[in-house]
What we know:
Layout: E1 4-7, E2 10-13, E3 18-24, E4 32-39, E5 46-51, E6 58-60, E7 68-73, E8 78-83, E9 92-100, E10 119-120, E11 124-129
Parallel strand pairs: 2-11
Antiparallel strand pairs: 1-3, 3-8, 4-5, 4-9, 5-6, 7-8, 9-10, 9-11
Amino acid sequence: QVQLVESGGGLVQAGGSLRLSCATSGRAFSTYALGWFRQAPGKERESVAAISRSGSEIYYVNSVKGRFTISRDNAKNTVYLQMNSLEPEDTAVYYCAARSLSPFDSGLYVYTRRSDYVYWGQGTQVTVSS
């Protein structure tokens, strides 16, 4: 069973920064495509950023482009989400997600749908005050 554990959330003022981390168990991290999602109260869970297995392909939702950066460290089995210039609208519970890929997969695809992912973390709260 793959476990994902997020950390790094908290309360920050508008304009501030946070870095979320998601550590995964097991030894198959390099085979995963990864994503960060968020869910605000009363809203659907949305894809915020995604990174391909190779790390060469990256996706951001328009609202975070230029402010958030997703990255992965295969040696540490960890995916990160650096969040700068935070806005009150970024307030949500943030989840990391992983999808295991076949060794024959090109590793160049990013996945942005909730249904694309099998493994999920428990979520970490991010609150941005105005």
